[in-house]
Design a protein that fits this description.
The chain contains six helices and twelve strands. It is of the alpha+beta class.
Amino acid sequence: MNKTRIQPASGTHAIEIMAIGIEWAFPLNEAQLATLQKVYDETSQIKEFLPQHSTVQAFTIQHAVPLGPDVGPQAHPLVVQSPQFVSQTAGFDLRRFEQSGTISWVASIRPEVLSCNCSVYDRWKNVSSKALSILLPFVNTALSSGAQISAIGLQYQDAFRLLDGVSPAVTKELFRQDCTWLPGHVFNEPSFWHCHQGWFSKGPDGRRLLNNVTTDISNINDNCFARIGGQHRIFSTSFDATTVLKIDASDINRILECLHDENKKVINGMLSDGALEAIGCSAGVA
């Protein structure tokens, strides 16, 4: 691959951002969210690494309620309360800022999901171990309070700068023309294109695994990029969705390794040998 016209967005690799998500079967209530807040307050390693804390507020509407009888001998016109907006805590965000002022890590605690994302990716074993050190204390506390995991997800976004813009020649240089995940016509498109697809595969213990891959070439602020967005999610159910397969905290690391392997399978099968060499994959780096 000619690096004077096609460059990995991050220099030695193409990964712009990586995110891990733990989805709950039922939204956490306020008491459970309070226990997770306590985890942050009492865990110095997390506080030191993610010192910026912000509470998330949600607003609910109390519907109008009629007051007084509206039938019978004592009937009188309805007196109706105005709708009331009620604020309540809906989780919190934790951030790490670099000296440049950019945000490098974010953990989000929400009633529906617990997530952690990293925009300073180096290698999987490094970022995955750091993400787990942040997530597991919250996961263990949530599970102890009665929460159940419904799915675990891993998301990547890989990007390449196309310095000469989009063209069939550039597309053929970056991607494998025999790739099963791209339709043949995109290799002859003279302008921007987009491809989205999804399929199921089997995860650990026969769990259901959903893969979504979005590939496009687009212009952003007068810069041309090729991006591959991969989202891989394992559910707490069998592949045929007929049997519940509970996910415990002890399963998370093995599941994430499986999801990472699914992502590598797509990247290795989609990018050309030259592109893989440019991001270090030919040397076994991921």
